[in-house]
From TrEMBL:
Signal sequence, start to end: none
Transmembrane helix is among the record's keywords: no
PROSITE patterns recorded: THIOREDOXIN_1 (PS00194), THIOREDOXIN_2 (PS51352)
Family indicated by similarity: Belongs to the thioredoxin family.
Organism: Actinophytocola gossypii
Protein's name in the database: Thioredoxin
Length: 108
C-alpha cells in the first residue's frame, strides 16, 4: 500500500526523495480514486527501488493540493528531483499509467 503524506510531510517524503515519486491526490468520496488504489499498489511493488508511490488526501491537505494546482480527483503528479515532470488527471488503466510513467522517465 502506498505511503500517505500530508501537508506537513510532503516536502520530506516527496520533494526531497532520492528517486522519482508518483503522488496521487485523492478524496474519500471519489470512486475513481478507489478504483485506482490497487493499481498504484501493484506499480509500487513492481517498481520498488526505482519509483516511490505516495498518496495525499486532497480534502484533508488543501494547502498541498492548492500549491500543486490540483483541480480534479484523482490527479497524479510525477516528481523527479523535487520537480513535477508529468501530471495525469483521472483514473487510468495499469497499462496506460505505466506507459505514461515510462514515457516521462525515459531520458531524451
Amino acid at each position: 500500500m502506498p505511503t500517505a503524506v500530508t501537508d506537513e510531510t510532503f516536502d520530506r517524503d516527496v520533494v526531497r526523495h532520492d528517486i522519482p515519486v508518483l503522488v496521487e491526490f485523492w478524496g474519500s468520496w471519489c470512486p475513481s480514486c478507489r478504483m485506482l488504489a490497487p493499481v498504484l499498489a501493484e506499480i509500487e511493488q513492481e517498481r520498488a527501488g526505482e519509483l516511490a508511490v505516495r498518496t495525499i488526501n486532497a480534502d484533508e491537505n488543501p494547502a498541498t493540493a492548492r500549491d500543486h494546482h490540483v483541480l480534479a480527483l484523482p490527479t497524479m503528479i510525477l516528481y523527479r528531483g523535487g520537480e513535477p515532470i508529468r501530471t495525469i488527471v483521472g483514473a487510468k488503466s495499469r497499462t496506460r499509467l505505466l506507459a505514461d510513467l515510462d514515457d516521462a522517465l525515459t531520458p531524451r
